[in-house]
Amino acid sequence: GRGGRTRRRWFGRGSAQESLLSDEEEGQEPGEGSGLGPSSNSTSFFYLMCLSHTLSAWEDRMWQFAVPIVMMHVFKDTLLPGALFGLVQYLGVVLLMPRAGVLIDQTYRLKLLWYAIMVENSCIFGTCGALVVMVVRDQRSGGSPGGALHMDAYMLCSYLAIIAFGVVGEVCNQIQTIALEKDWVVVIADEEGEKLSRMNVTLQRIDLLCKVMAPGVIGVFLDLFGRERALSSSLVGILVLALFNFFSWPIEYCVLREIYETVPRLQMKKITDKEVVYKGLVEEEVSGGKGEKRTVLESLKLYVSHHVFLASLAYSMLYMTVLDNGTLITSYLTWREVPSSVLGFQRGIGAVVGLAGTFLYAWLVSSSGNGGEGNGGKVERVGLTSIWFFVVTMAPSVVVLMLFGPSWLSDYSLIAGMIVSRAALWMFDLAETQVMQERVEEESRGVMNSMQVATYRTLYCVIQGFGMLFSNPRDFIVLAFISLASLLGAACVYSLWFFRHHEKKGGAGQAYSALDASA
After folding, report:
1. Alpha-carbon gap, residue 128 to 507, rounded angstroms
2. pLDDT tens, 117-164?
3. Buried-most residue among 317, 371, 450, 515 (CB within 10 A)?
């Protein structure tokens, strides 16, 4: 602050209210003395938030499953268009999320979600339109014009539009995820550790159920007319996606608005030195983009200097693996002639094991000692245990592959390892999520979580790059070894963070605001 006083802005119901708080008053809970304390029944509104989260997660899982399939129906002889779409989408998120993080921290909660929901759904409708153009064009031509990789002007423009809509839509989706799961839920839980754990577990279970069920539902429509009329099935699937999106997004926003207007603390968001942000935006317009570079560097500096950085880095390193039910290991096991039914069964059982892990996490957190006290917080200790258990359950599969090479034994060892390890993986995911919720100060949640998204997306692109470098299925052992090294490194990094910072609760005094530093 300047001169012993810090400028804060609180967002009241329907208007922005500005107040000056002295240093002594900064410890005051938002709303104290104003009749706007935490809502006594705030937990009940969490279940309304679960409704919005379910609709959003179901929609996301359907899209993630449907778009590659529709592209394969159009580009029948190559994986390149689908792979390029995924790669560009990931790279777009890496480049744009640091900027989005600043936007999250410097925008009032309901206004942020209104724009994010509107833009994302506009992108979805645009994607539907572009997919329809591609499918209809392909039907009329009797196949991809000139071959799978030679598109005419209509197909090319539609494909480029899908990529552009995909990048913008995914960034907006990440903004909503960070705002709701890393900010709103913390406020609704009144920052109570055990209540926050229960809410996180509930949201995680919703994600798992949507991950299992949503692809199956949309898959019925995408296969409605069989392989002979795949393009007709694609049109039906696109129509179903568009209709679901059309009817779900108003419900999502109305539910969130109801929660916002009923939980007073959501209406009081800390925005530090907002005039600095406005000044930066003006300077960016004048400097022709230099401001954006400065913002990214400041976000990176804040992220690396924050005391939760190593915990976040450990979480991000778990994405640098092929041992994840993803495209690379699925392609390898398919090359090994493992039946598709076995792979589908493995994913279903893995989801059930992951769901069991959420129950175990809730039990461990509730039965442990006092969080954040003594020899480390209970959430942090569960995270330490679960990440090492994850490494221990996956390591034997890689060892078997290294000893016996591509074989029946190594194939099913990989499958068994991925199934058993899901419980530990989801437990660590829950623990790290709560660490980021509790130990990152409110005014930095957007930047910190956006930088985490950019980091794990970057590491995911790295392992995909290794996959392109070692594209021969016989070289999969190299990818497995790199993955195991990344998992082991993640466990070591998290252990280092735990023993270095386990007695420090909260981010106050451990980090500084990059925006303040630029003032």
Report:
1. 43
2. 999 999 999 999 999 988 888 777 765 544 445 677 888 899 999 999
3. 450
Beta strands per DSSP E along 406-485: none
Answer yes or no: are the C-beta atoms of 270 and 442 closer than 8 Å: yes
Please indicate whether residue 78 or residue 379 has the higher confidence score (pLDDT).
379
Q: Measured on CA atoms in the order 133, 136, 138, 141, is the torsion positive or negative?
A: negative
E-state strands within 255-328: none
Shared fold status for 39-269 and 306-519: yes
Residue among 258, 240, 236 nearest 62 (CA): 240
Domain boundaries defined on the chain: 39-269, 306-519
Q: What is the pLDDT of residue 476?
A: 92
What is the C-alpha to C-alpha distance for residues 452 and 460, in angstroms, rounded to an integer? 12
Please list, in sequence order, all residues whose beta carbon lies within 8 angstroms of the beta carbon of residue 430, skipping any fewer than 6 positions away: 197, 200, 201, 204, 358, 361
- Residue 436's pLDDT is 92
Q: How far apart are CA 421 and CA 119, in angstroms?
A: 37
Global model pTM greater than 0.85:
no
Per the prediction, the chain carries an average pLDDT of: 79
Phi and psi at residue 20, in whole multiples of 5°? -105, 125
Q: Which fold has domain 39-269?
A: Growth Hormone; Chain: A; (1.20.1250)
Closest by Cα among 2, 7, 518, 104 to 280: 518
The alpha carbon of 410 is separated from its chain's Cα centroid by a whole number of angstroms, namely 31
Per CATH, is 306-519 categorized as 3.40.50.2020?
no
3-state SS, residue 64: helix
Beta-carbon contacts of residue 44 (< 8 Å; ≥ 6 apart): none
Residue 352: C-alpha distances to residues 211, 315, 448 (Å): 11, 22, 31
Distance between CA atoms of 59 and 14, rounded to whole angstroms? 30
User: How many helices (H) and strands (E) in the chain?
Assistant: 17, 2
Residue the block writes with tokens 């059309």 = 246
Mean pLDDT of 46-51: 88
The whole-number pLDDT of residue 519 equals: 36
Rounded mean pLDDT, 419-424: 95
What lies within 8 Å, CB to CB, of 263 at 6+ separation is: 38, 39, 42, 45, 187, 188
